[in-house]
Request: fold
Amino acid sequence: MTRVQDIIALLGTAVGLTATAAAAPPVEVNRIIAKVNDSVITEKDVRGFVEPTLRVIQRQFANQPGVFAQRASELWRAGIDELINRQLVLDDFKKSGLVLPEAVIDDFIASRIKEQYTDRATLTKTLQADGTTYESFRQNLKESFIVEQMYLRNISSAIIISPFKVETYYREHTNDFKLPDQVHIRVIALNKAGPADTARPRLARELHGKLKENQPFADLAKVYSDGSQRDAGGDWGWVELSVLRKELADAARGLKPGQHSDVIETADACYLLKLEAVRTSHIKPLAEVRAEIERVLADQERARLQRRYIERLRKTAFLRYFPD
Reply:
């Protein structure tokens, strides 16, 4: 698409994407992309909408120009569709005769400013750097808030997830809830100053002797361990055997709950490990994952209802595209 190539070139000018792009001055064109009822969507609108994401994929695929061009083209088309959908929802808001109090909108905008910019001064500097006015910023947030409320009104209130749907999803996705072998362990880690360090191995042997005298593992860990879980008595909680370094995993497999290992020495540290409990591979029970499944199904239903809502709006709208 010619327009996609233009936006890539414009981005390249700003961030040094290509020598060709950098050499060519940006062309200020604000062509109409689409007409939605009485409103128009311009190239500038689409560019402003997709540019933040475009910059992300530019960095991600900096060494793959072909992939980047394809992703940019897809993003451009998706951006047009999203802006059309947004305008359709805004028009539906007007037709519905609904009114949002300005005080509510002001509170929403104030919360966004605090969340994203901390204060008004920081916002002002950011807008100046982007060449955007506060009025434009406020209008964009106001429209976003209206769209959000319209989706809530037309979609979220209709979402009902029955127990039957949850149980069916659970049966059909049991592998998603399968847990591998896990162990609950405590670890005393003594970092070596270097491969020739003899002090830490000696201390590890002394601590091993204290453990054999039944001194509490957690107490020793709180005093001597160099690990980040020191304050928790070396408690690593439940971990998968597959993610442990081999020396620790092998030691854990050879223990029974309540037992501790001999000194485990590696090139960079010495370890003592206590096995608290074992959990063999199993499927999480439905009760444990019900809330998670409900969220997944709610997201799916929300997406379905949103598509249906937009399709309904498109059927009665005047919509015209202006191709390159």
About this structure: Residues 181-280 form a domain with the Chitinase A; domain 3 fold (CATH 3.10.50.40). Residues 13-24 have pLDDT under 50 and may be disordered. Residues 65-96 form the longest helix (32 residues). Residues 85 and 310 are 7 Å apart (CA to CA).
